[in-house]
Design a protein that fits this description.
This protein is mainly α. The protein is about 65% helix and about 0% strand. It has a two-stranded antiparallel ribbon with strand order 1-2.
């Protein structure tokens, strides 16, 4: 039954959903119109004034708009190419093939991909994003090679679920920022509002989050297994990507002099760079200072990229093999390069026009009108508003910077647990990633599917997961 419903939703989205670039342009237009109608500027004396077209275009095109994600875009490109190169190395390829040989059916394959992607997503969102995509692709190849019928778009959708759990994991932006006094001071500024930092035991390691996040991992695996069609037409991986994208060492000119061959075809150069990165990795992951935690618990895209660069260099062995793998992966960066600036522009318009604040405040204020305890209603409405805001600002850090102060101030005024509000915002931010194609761009590049092929399945998962989160916020 669930598989048939998923197929119908997928067919609907395949018939109606445009390319993610078109979606980004349409969201830009929608945001522009909303800002022109509801946005405003605030003078030094606190008075509000309407915005003109030039004002909004300025918000969209300045350094806090279109160009705000330049560094982040490069990080995403590096995550894609270093992760792709790592997975294509002979040892990792054998490991992935071994894992992909375990499932005996398409449903089991989808469950394994979802479990891997979600588990990696709880450790770090970048690992969940790239690892989920890679295991989905290679699972599709292994199942097709073994003659087991699977619907490849369901596997690709399962590889995306790490982005549905990440904000409750160790790279969650909101819980990490609210645990630092400097971040709290920066967040509230001169508003006069103060609060104590929240320990991770109150947020990420709280009973609420442990139950919610573990439940989401299980829900993702079960739902993806049930969504895998058992009968009828299925589309294997060969309908979306070539039989193999592994690099071939014989593709390059072999007639080289001794010195170039020595430098390019032996591990010498790789080992020099690996020694430098290895020294950093030792200091970062195994700090010698007593009381200093391992960097494993505070990974950012930079650390993920440097770690995957180290592992990729080691496992490929020679510069020529690694460069060839990177060149093969770099073709998938087009979507990131083209679309991320557009979403940065959307965020710039929303933030600088105060539209995000109005949206978050308006939805949160609805909690006062519901005849239930604010301890229940305020986190639920914060969860809902965060999901809506994430459609327009699909950056956890950007969303927390805008909506975090509103949520914390509302919690103080209503006497609601601030840790509960932090996690409600985090859950809303991560949930609608299943509908927002921003984060799917790297996955689409690796798996070869289109957004319209997977969004029907991820949308259905989003609804079920949203019901689970809501139930937890009500009962726990």
């Amino acid at each position: 039954m669930l598989a048939r419903l998923g197929d119908r939703l997928a067919a609907l989205f395949r018939a109606t959903a445009p390319d993610p670039f078109v979606i980004a342009v349409l969201l830009t237009l929608l945001t522009f119109v909303l800002v022109m109608i509801f946005g405003y500027d605030v003078a030094e004396d606190g008075t509000r004034s309407a915005l003109g077209i030039s004002d909004v275009i300025g918000f969209w095109s300045d350094k806090n708009g279109l160009w705000a994600f330049l560094g982040f875009s490069m990080q995403m490109c590096l995550i894609l190419v270093t992760g792709h190169a790592l997975a294509s190395s002979p040892p990792m390829a054998r490991l992935i093939r071994k894992l992909a040989s375990l499932p005996k059916s398409g449903a089991q394959a989808a469950a394994v991909v979802a479990l891997v992607a979600a588990s990696l997503g709880l450790v770090n969102w970048g690992l969940g994003l790239i690892g989920g995509a890679l295991i989905a692709r290679d699972m599709g190849r292994a199942m097709e090679a073994r003659g087991i019928r699977v619907h490849y778009p369901v596997l690709a959708a399962a590889g995306y679920v790490g982005l549905m759990v990440w904000h409750g994991g160790f790279s969650g932006t909101a819980p990490l920022k609210i645990s630092k006094e400097s971040e709290i001071t920066s967040m509230f500024g001169d508003s006069g509002i103060t609060m104590e930092p929240l320990l991770l035991t109150e947020t990420l390691l709280s009973p609420l989050n442990l139950i919610v996040s573990l439940g989401l991992v299980i829900v993702a695996a079960v739902v993806m297994a049930l969504l895998m069609p058992r009968h009828g037409n299925v589309s294997g991986i060969s309908s979306f990507v070539p039989a193999s994208s592994e690099t071939n060492d014989n593709d390059r000119d072999e007639a080289k002099a001794f010195l170039p061959r020595l430098l390019e075809d032996t591990p010498l150069v790789n080992l020099v760079l690996c020694a430098m990165i290895g020294w950093w990795a030792f200091m970062y992951y195994l700090p010698m200072d007593e009381g200093t935690p391992s960097g494993l618990w505070s990974l950012s895209p930079n650390e993920v990229n440097l770690t995957m660069l180290l592992l990729g260099l080691l496992l490929h062995g020679t510069p020529r093999r690694y460069v060839s793998a990177i060149e093969d992966a770099a073709r998938g960066c087009a979507g990131i390069i083209l679309q991320f600036p557009l979403y940065a522009g959307i965020m710039g318009m929303m933030h600088q026009s105060h539209l995000t604040e109005e949206l978050a405040s308006g939805i949160s204020s609805l909690a006062d009108r519901v005849p239930l305890s604010e301890e229940i209603t305020l986190p639920i409405f914060t969860f809902i508003s965060a999901g809506i805001v994430n459609i327009f600002i699909p950056s956890g850090g950007g969303q927390w910077g805008v909506q975090g102060p509103i949520a914390m101030e509302a919690a103080q005024q209503a006497g609601v647990s601030p840790s509960r509000m932090v996690m409600a915002l985090a859950y809303g931010d991560q949930l609608t990633n299943m509908l927002q194609p921003f984060w799917a761009v790297p996955l689409l590049a690796i798996t070869g599917v289109k957004a319209r092929d997977i969004v029907g399945y991820t949308c259905l998962l989003m609804l079920i997961a949203g019901a689970w989160i809501t139930a937890c916020l009500v009962m726990l």
